[in-house]
Amino acid sequence: MRQEAHEILYNPRLNKGTAFTEAERELLGLTGLFPDAVDDSATQQKRALAQLAHRANDLERYIYLSELQDRNERLFYQLLRADPAKHMPIVYTPTVGEACQKFGHIMRRPKGLYVSLKHRGRVADILRNWPEADVRIICVTDGERILGLGDLGICGMGIPVGKLALYTAIGGVHPGRCMPVVLDVGTNNENFRHDPLYPGLRQERVRGAEFDALVEEFVMAVQEVYPRACIQFEDFHNTTAIPLLARYRDRVCCFNDDIQGTASIAVAGLFAACRALGNTLADHRYLFFGAGSAATGIADLVVQAMKARGTSEADAHAKIWLMNSKGLVVKDNPGIQPHQVQFVREGKLEPTLLDAVKAVKPTVLIGTSTQPATFTREVIEAMRAYCKQPVIFPYSNPTSKAECTAEQAWTWTDGDAIFAAGSPFAPVTLGKRVLIPGQGNNVYIYPAVGLAVYACEASRVTDEMFLKAAESLASRTSDAELSVGLIYPPIERIHQSAVDVAVDVATLIFDRGLARVERPDNIDGWIRSKVYNPAY
Q: Mean pLDDT across the stretch 314-337?
């Protein structure tokens, strides 16, 4: 085999498999290396779908798609973009959770960049080992809080790999501009440390000054090696995620999707819910079950959204209640964390969710607890006692961690609830009505913001950008879609929605003087010209 042919066949970005034309095969020395038939993209997709259908379960389908990405990148993205509703749950939530748990056992090609404690003092050199010279989006995790599954150490690599695949499939960021990273600082998962197939450092997780020093070196090395890159912090524990965002958000181009992206998709859902109900954010009382960084991030963006519409900060805060493992976050709560302090309320320490609902009388119940089946019939019926159409958002994922299902929420409210979840649920039939649950998945937000930041070469990422993304996304659900339960645009048109949202966010970036490129005359057309097309 000629060297050129070998390089093409084993380069997933160049390889087209059986779609190489006869002329291309002759030119590149590929003749005879494929069967004679020349397939078009549609035929290749049919073959891939047939092979997927023969896989025994979603984890096997995840492995197949991962291998397809390794050998024919464009076909992989063609599949994802052609049917995101079918393939997103395999490539990302919920299947990616199981894939991370079993990462050391199913790993084929070690995707991504692994920066460990052993690399202290030469992280910039490690970054230069990455084969792409112009990285713009870096998704980095330390694996400590993977979805609702806990500390998975280096096996959390599946999360940045999956996230970045959706940056490309949904947002249209070129895959060559994306880099997944794991910071290997050990793991407190004893099963992993004793598993002979665990591929990371076999030591307890480091914290404090040693952890901070590695992160600092990594962030500064990115500024040196990839000065136009945006860093997305992903699935860090609350105790590190919040300080990291505070430490770096005004120094470098970065954001935390678990805090800001989750907040944005939740607020988008609230804007859409208000459209369906004919009211405003300020007309509701909010109870968050779970008071981690996701909950406080959502609550903070809700406050900002209300303030932008004329509500005072004090009045906005008065509408929000949090609940942690000890009960309502009131002054007597013994488990208050620093990030919860701004939402501490006067009142009685109600220990259970049912007690809290009866005391607070929320019209919006948001779950970020990763405690499954906690939005019980009694809880939801207690809301119905004073609110005909409660807003119920069980946002914990994967599906096994959801606080309730779509069928439960709608059955217990006779179909009157405004519902969205963090994971996908099937349509629900109630009599003659078919209700379609929306998935409040960050994938509606972060690829759109990422495309805007990438195109504009933004110097910073701000909360205002995520608020703009929420407003933009909420406006793209039609009245007809709202009437059947959808509060987010159908997943089938998520790519178009993401590009539309990116246009609005890019306009804001230029308006705020945060772009590092010249403002084009037509931002809409300019953004669309940046979108990656996986077609051959």
A: 96
Kindly indicate the confidence band of residue 59, based on its pLDDT and cuts at 50, 70 and 90.
very high
CATH class of the domain whose range is 3-77: mainly alpha
- Strand, coil or helix: what is 373? coil
pLDDT in tens, 191-247: 999 999 999 999 999 999 999 999 999 999 999 999 999 999 999 998 999 999 999
Count CA atoms within 13 Å of residue 443 on its CB side: 37
How confident is the model over 488-528, as pLDDT tens digits?
Answer: 999 999 999 999 999 999 999 999 999 999 999 999 999 99
- For residue 1, what pLDDT band results from cuts at 50, 70 and 90? low
Tell me the C-alpha distance between 509 and 465, whole Å: 8
CATH 3.40.50.10380 residue ranges in the chain?
95-252
pLDDT level of residue 299 (50, 70, 90 thresholds) = very high
* Residue 397, pLDDT score: 81
**Choice among 62, 77, 92, 446 that is catalytic:** 92
As a whole number of angstroms, the distance between CA 399 and CA 389 comes to: 24
Q: Which of 62, 114, 163, 468 is catalytic?
A: 163
Active site (annotated) includes residue 92: yes
| Tokens, residue 34 | 């494929």
Q: What is the mean pLDDT of the chain?
A: 96
In the predicted model, is pLDDT for residue 424 greater than 90? no
Sequence-distant (6+) residues with CB within 8 A of 403 are 289, 367, 369, 371, 372, 373, 374, 375, 394, 396
Domain span(s) for CATH 3.40.50.720 in the chain: 260-442
What span, in angstroms and rounded, lies between the C-alpha atoms of 384 and 396?
Answer: 22
Question: What pTM, to 2 d.p., does this model score?
Answer: 0.94
d(CA 43, CA 49): 10
- Could you give the residue range(s) of every CATH 1.20.1370.30 domain in the chain? 3-77
DSSP 15-39: --GGG--HHHHHHHT-TTSS-SPPP
- Please state the CATH superfamily assignment of the domain spanning residues 260-442 in this structure: NAD(P)-binding Rossmann-like Domain (3.40.50.720)
Q: Is 532 a catalytic residue?
A: no
The whole-angstrom separation of Cα 12 and Cα 190 is 36
CATH of 95-252, one of 3.30.1490.20, 2.40.170.20, 3.30.365.10, 3.40.50.10380: 3.40.50.10380
